Every structure is written in C-alpha cells, then in structure tokens.
Model the fold of this input.
Amino acid sequence: MATPAIEIENLTKDYPFGFLHLKKKTSLEGLTMSVENGEVFGFLGPNGAGKSTTIKLLVGLIFPTAGTARILGKPISDISMHGDIGYLPEQPYFYDYLTAAELLDYFARIHDLPAQERKARVDAMLKKVGLETARKIQLRKYSKGMLQRVGLAQAILHDPKVVILDEPMSGLDPVGRREVRDIILELKQAGKTVLFSTHILSDAEMLCDRVGVIVGGKLRGVGAPDEIVGMKPQGMEILFEYTGDSKGLRGLLSKATQTGSRYRLQVAEADLYATMQQLCGAGAKVLSVSQVRATLEEYFMHLVAADRAQAPAVEVSGK
Amino acid sequence: MRRVGIVALNTFREAVRDRVLYNLVFFALVMIAASILVGQISIGIEEMVIVSLGLSAISVIGLLIAVFIGVGLVSKEMDKRTLYALLAKPVRRWEFLLGKFGGLVLTLTVNTIAMALGLFLALGVITQSDEHLAGSVLVAVYFILLKLALVVALALLFSCYTTPLLAILCTAGLYIAGLFVKEMRAFQSDTVSQAVQSVLRGLSYILPNFENFDVMAAAAHGRAIPGLLIAQNTAYAALYCAVVLAAATAIFTRRNLK
Ligand SMILES: Nc1ncnc2c1ncn2[C@@H]1O[C@H](COP(=O)(O)OP(=O)(O)O)[C@@H](O)[C@H]1O
Ligand SMILES: [Mg+2]
Done:
C-alpha cells in the first residue's frame, strides 16, 4: 500500500486563555486518522468541534501543541509540500483592491506557473467556478458566495494532489452547492485526494468515501457513511394493516403511528418475532418488515447530545 | 527570493491603488509649492528656506506613510484573513514579511522620488541652483529614504506581536527617542544616579540612531556631504533593518494565526 495522502497522529491543540494564560482550552485532543490517496473524506462536526483547527494545523497556519501529521509523506512543517496542496479557508476573504483575475494571477505566480499556462489556468478556473463575467470586478464588491467561489478557484488553481476545503458549501445558494459538489466529484475522478469539513450532513453522505465525526475536539467515529451509522444499535420497523377494534392490540397500537388503516411500528430487534406473532394472532396483515437505517444525521445528533451531557467536565481544564 | 519579489509587487500595487497615498503626496507637493512663495519673501535665503521646508515635507509625509501603512502591512492581512490562502501556498513566512517590507519601501521610494522632483522643480524656478546644492539635497533625500526603511522595519516588528495602535505608539516613540541618541550618550548630571546614566548610555547604542540621517542643515546651506557618512549611513540602515526584520521573522514564524 502507498502511504496515505494525509496521516494525522495524536494531533492536539490547546489555546491558552485567561489571566496570564494559566488556563487552556483544548480545541483538538489527540486526533489520529488518515486519508487515503484518491479518497474524498468528509470531516463532520458541529460548530466549534475543531474542524477548522485541524485543517489550519494541516496547512501550517497554526502549530500543534502535541502530535504530528504528514501530508504526501512530508511533515506539515515542510512548506515545500504546499505546492501540492490546495486550501480553501473558512469564510475566505481576499485583497479588496484586486479583481478575481488579478488575484488568481498573483497566486499562480506564487506557484511559479509559467506565463502562458498561467493565463490559461486562471481563465479555466474562473470559468469552472462561474465567475467569468465578474473577473474584472474588484473583490471588495464581491458577495460572500462569490468570494467562496474565488476561494475554491485559488485552491485548485495549481492542480494540487491534495485539496483541503474548510466548509466549501457555506454561503452558497443551492445552485452553488451543486456546483461545488460537481467540482469535488471531478477532483475525485481526476484521482485527487479531497478532505473537506462541513456541518451539513447530506453533503457528506452524498460525496464522501469516508467520513470522520468530530465533536468537542475528539474524533468519535470514522468510516463509510453507511458503516458509521451501522455502529449504532438499531430497531426494526413493521408496517401492517389492521381494521379490527383496538382491544386485542391495545398496547401495540398506542406505540404505532397510524395513517388511515395502516400502522407503522418500531420495535427492538429482539422483540420482532413476539410482536409479529401477536399481530398475526389478532388478524393484522403484515405488509413489510424493514431494518431501521439511522441516518448520519441521527448518529450525529446522538453524539452531540452525548457530548453536551459531559461538556462542562471537558470544556475547560486548568493547567 | 522570487516569491519575495511577487509579494512586494503586490504590496506596491495595493499602495498604488490606495487613494490616501496620493492625497499625502499631493499635500507634500502643495507644501513645496508654498515654500516658493515663502522663499520669495525671504530674499537672500530663498534656497535655504525652500530646501528645509521641502525636505521636511518629504520626511514628514514619508514618516506618516511608513508608520501607518507599515503597521498595517501584516496586521491587516491577519485581521482580514487575506493571508490564510497565501501562507498555505509554498510561501515561507520570512518571504512574506520581507516581501511586505520590500513592497512598502518600493512605494516609499517612488513617492519620495516624486516629491523630490517637486522640490528640484521649486529650486529651479527660484534660483540658478549650483550643482553643489543639488548634490547635497539628493543625498539628504537618500538619507530620508534610509530612515524610512528603518521605520518600516520597526513598524513591522511591533505589529508582529502587539495591536496596531500600540505598534504605532511604539514605532513613533522609538523614532523620537532615536532623534536624541547623541544627547543620551553625552548625558551627565549630578542629580541623576550613576546607574541611570549608564542605562541611558547603553540604550543610546541599542536604539536606532535617527540623528545621523538628518543632514538638512548641511543641505540647506549647500555644504557637501562627506562620502564616508553616506557609506556609514547606508551600512547602518542595512544592518539595523536586517536585525529588526530577523527579529520580526522569529516572532512571526512561531505565531498562530487566529
Ligand atoms: N484563536 C483561538 N483562540 C482560542 N480558542 C479558539 C481559537 N480558535 C478556535 N478556538 C476554539 O477552538 C474550538 C474549535 O474551533 P474550530 O476548529 O474553529 O471549530 P469548527 O469545527 O467550527 O471549525 C472552538 O471552541 C473555538 O472557540
Ligand atoms: Mg470551522
């Protein structure tokens, strides 16, 4: 196996605060995970979970308190690897006095693209993110969504092998989100590795080979979207038709949701057969039995709730 | 080094597109023009008046730009987060700092040249100025530039570890202190303890010596400025800038962006 595109080991970030910086807040705690080559990896978590902290550590904007990480086999402190990575900051903002074309040209120069290629790349990127017509407008006049698009364009300008996007869909309308999804899929097709953070679960479910869920600075689970959900104990759902009086099935019917003469009932896996027998005995017609597939959303909410419960204990720890 | 140049040119472009700059330079040119009027009243010493007023205008406007834009060079990019995307590219932090520094020094050079041209124009209007005078005025302008580069480096250093307002105060304070280096060195008094005097003397060697860059009096009187002083000042400014920028880099490379 080739080395993973991104390897993170025990990465930790504390922010000191308060009087004389005696207290510290742990934004990220012992993160260990890796992103394989050519994988689209979704980094999921609620606001303040530590997603941006992780990403900023990876691209060298902040420095870890402990732990290490490697991108394309090189330690994150090695700037030379930056030529092969693209980064979209959270809520990106760029130089007011430049136009989109000028900004991209500036970044292309930084990446040392030759003059001819530079112009072609800048044009292609502006087209890709749908800013061709706005290319001569100064960035100070750009809306949030347009800045997000410029940000995406500069992240993939130099055809990087690893693309790291911090909340790429935020600030975009449905059309824009769709376009970003397409760009991510294109990158995947081209064999690039994509790591992106989001708090919008449907985006992750749709795009990712694997997701990592982070809550309160700790990684709570990694896996394929359906795999990760499968880790939670689930029940069975029985759909049945019943027209008789409610006497025989009183206990069950009160737990079921009714639509006309149809009922939907959720039971634990262990109780399935007993319940079925009871239903058949009472003359109900069972239409279907299916496994309850928890969505990523439910899984997510479950983790957040668990974290909230113990939050006061972990949030602030004195030195 | 290539990237330093790219960042510097972009910094220069930012300054060129900033209207505040034009206003300041325009203001300096107006002051120089006004000096012609004043010069005409003061018969016999026209040249002296024009040269001192003109050089003062160039120096003050340059200082304003150096301090206020200098302090914002890095802090503005951090506040607005414009440097996040840049630093995730193959740009080392020292390259960024040096580029920013170079960009503003380039801007100041262009501005100072523009203002100096105004000054020479004013001199040409009023007198048949001799080469001697032109030469020493040119050197005086060059010294102002050296001084400004040093001020930019200091502003950059302070803005790397404190708030913009404090950085402005520190830079201005250091500049003013640097004008009295000789006095500090020679300071002698019976009422002040020996310890304080030696501290002052020590400080006078550490503080940037801005006094040496002031040759306005010599220039105004058309006295030639010795070549040795030119060499000394150039070397001093280069060395001091290098040390200050190295310190700024040391701080900035360890700095966590917000
Ligand atoms: N510069 C900073 N100083 C102090 N605390 C910070 C700083 N940056 C982030 N944090 C804290 O770290 C935690 C994680 O933040 P972040 O990584 O931005 O979360 P998100 O998952 O929303 O991107 C938050 O609780 C935030 O308050
Ligand atoms: Mg974030």
